[in-house]
Model the fold of this input.
Amino acid sequence: MTIHGDDIAIHAHRLVKRFGDAVALDGFDLDVPTGSVLSLLGPSGCGKTTALRVIAGFERPDGGNVTISGLEVAGDQVWVAPERRRVGMVFQDYALFPHMTVARNVAYGLHASETHRVADVLGLVGMPDMGSRMPHELSGGEQQRVALARALAPGPEVILLDEPFSNLDAPQRSRMRRELRAILQKARATAVFVTHDQEEALSMADIVAVMDSGRVLQVGRPQDVYRHPVSSWVADFLGESEFIDGEARIGAVDTELGTFPALGAEPGPVTVMIRPEWVQPLPATDGPSTVIHREFYGHDQLVYIQLAEGRVIRSRLGPTPVLNPGDKVEVAIDEVVVFPR
Done:
């Protein structure tokens, strides 16, 4: 995914950051388009929060550079202090001052001439009448909105959010995802949020950057990264997957599940990835495959199918058809992704 010139709000190039012998960032590259919401997604310990802190200016990189809205803020000969980077930060624990009211928390760091912004941003986050409340009087979701209002108040170029939903329970997380997305859109903010939750990243972001071992492995629209991962590791990390061996030839790949189109694959041994939602079991009295387990979730179901050869694969379906253990089926596969082996 390529972005050019003035369209880039954040440009991080070849960032390196070490903590003693541990390498947190190892050639980290990332471009964030202006006005977009980008999710930095990866497993715990891969360097996501370190990347955010280097961009914000809380950590100095050992190599590489950072540019924000055309201004270099970190590099070999350049260092701009965090308060001069026009970056808003929402911390994982929100970091509200417990002895200050909501309004004073939001006003913290503003110049006297800017205090009119407090009412504006509290209205933006849906809390226009709560300026006199204390943080301990708020729910977790309300505290998060106050933290976001404080980050938005100075009118930053970018907003950085570190695991913004980790302190919320499941129902709150779902609601706050929608609310946070709406607030960022209304504010026309460029935002980067760190998460290890695949569903969170795919559902909220315009762009997903998948990260591991200190570097970004793939960047793209959520649907593109999910359907066309660049490696089997990215594929497996992003969601449920089945991996089987295959043999590629010109234009096709042969597997124990059949032959599938494989444009561009180099002839030879390959690994074939199949998402459960691409597996379609068709009820058939004399079908060669057998349903052995079913997990029903209401809105969908996960069906485990044993093929004639003995392999078990999963199929994610809507609530129908109703398939029960012991049912015979034929299996159709809508698409596959092929990786070199």
About this structure: Residues 34 and 341 are 38 Å apart (CA to CA).
